[in-house]
Fold this sequence. Notes:
The chain is mainly alpha-helical. The protein has helices at 11-30, 33-39, 45-73, 75-95, 99-127, 133-161, 165-184, 211-214, 218-240, 242-249, 254-281, 284-300, 308-325, 328-336, 342-369, 372-391, and strands at residues 407-409, 415-417. It has a two-stranded antiparallel sheet with strand order 1-2. The model is unreliable at 1-7, 193-206 and 397-419 (pLDDT under 50). It is a multi-pass membrane protein.
Amino acid sequence: MRLRGAGDLPREVRVLSVVAFVVALGFGIVAPAIPLFARSFGVGTTAVGLAVSAFAFFRFVSAFSGGSLVERLGERTVLAAGLVTVAVTTGAAGLADFFPVFLGLRAAGGVGSAMFTVAALSLLLRVSPPTHRGRAAATYQGGFILGGIAGPALGGLLTELSARLPFLLYAGFLLVAGVVGLLYLRPGAAAPPTGTPAATEAAPGPETLPLRRAFRSRVYLAALVANLGVGWVLFGVRNSLVPLYVTEELGRSVAWAGAGLLAGSLAQALGLLRSGRLADAWGRRPSLVLGTALATTSMAVLVLPPAIGAFLLSMAAFGLAASLLSSVPAALVGDVSPARGGRVVAVFQMSADLGAIAGPLVAGWLTDVASYQVAFAVSTAVLGLGLAAALAMPRSTPRAPGRAAPTARNASGRARHAP
Length: 419
């Protein structure tokens, strides 16, 4: 499926993808060390969980403020400041001698992470032409996926040497990413011409789109609900519940859980090679319908009686769905708010973070009081809400790249754009 009449992706997209890879690589390196290092302070399991969740919680509650900073200061400045904040707090956390200090530094790192994430996605969507937004989002997400696959393996080896070492190395990676961003992201990068309008109920002008206006768009709401499902399952339930499901319900070793998660990650990485192009050429609505339908079906498989083959199939199918849900909703947000939309992007990011926080808690509680199947059924329903929202979107889609808008002749014989 080749797109005609489209140039290469803007340089900012490639730079942001490299930054995303470095950030994800570093985060993957430090992830195995966090619970072990927290445990070294002599605290209990609950405190260890708090050390893990503090970062995500403060990232969630500070995202909206990060969006406001983007609108005031610009994406490049906020992005660099966010990376430096996470770098300093992470490096200091690795040197901490007391658990409260370590916990506070982890929380402050979440604030910096929110700044970086909102600024990076806002810049990505603003500089990407409408005909390339799907591919731009897929390329950016691909950097995260590759870094996320490579990081944990290296992190496990480094943690064996020293639980502090991964924190210091991650801090160094973040500083490198910040320098790359400052050097190669052009100050005040201009947004592309909006000659190809997005399929949205409210076509915004060049000004920042008010958040309340975005909430009136079924397109934006569909992106939010789909992103909630991504956070709920991809970043939440899949990592917290799936390993326990494999060992306790399927009666298999942890290696089988790792195999399922790896199958999902590889399927997502492969799917990202085509998902962005599909969103740009086929249209946002059908791509989102396909992604949410595949995600809902794949999770529904786990509601069936336990079977290792069904589990592996579910993980791989959800990985393919995640490749679409990692690019299409973001492209929709760019369609709704092509100008600098810090708060619009921030709320979009918060929807995934909310799912990542609530998903493991709700699913874990349902497993305790009922069963794994009930927990997976509720997760299926959350993904099903995304499918319903996608089906409720307007049927109009962005015009195929390279195709001119329909024209009509006026009385003088000159061509004019059809309204």
